[in-house]
Amino acid sequence: MKAKASWFESAANKVTRWTGSSAAFGIAAGVILVWGISGPVFGFSDTWQLVINTGTTIITFLMVFLIQKTQNKDSKAIQLKLNELIAASRMASNRLVDVEDLNEQELDTLHKYYQKLADAMAKEKDLHTSHSIDAAEALHRLKIKSSVTGDDKAA
Hints:
The protein is mainly α. It contains 5 helices and no strands.
């Protein structure tokens, strides 16, 4: 089910893989070494400094976009894998599928909820006790009902 990659995507993947290799690091270190050694030959001139500054700036500028492209693709693949795990698990809440599409405020709300869940788990004596969003919401509804009716035994 592999789709044919665009020219840019294919090139970006190859360049990103190569630039993360030991050989690429060795070449970059070699260039810096040659540049440093050539300093006295060129009298440490402004042009000599400009060559390395311009070269590294251009490479850095282009690499930012290549790295971002690769990160976006990797992130999307990870999200899809996590969505599959959530969808496949009977006990997981399907509300978390595509959670990455929520806005910042919605994510903050979920984070606060899970922080409360983590805090509740920290108080548990049994490390194997599990809580889910649905179980916590059912308990929350029960607590609200008991506060309205004044029945402390319901909670």
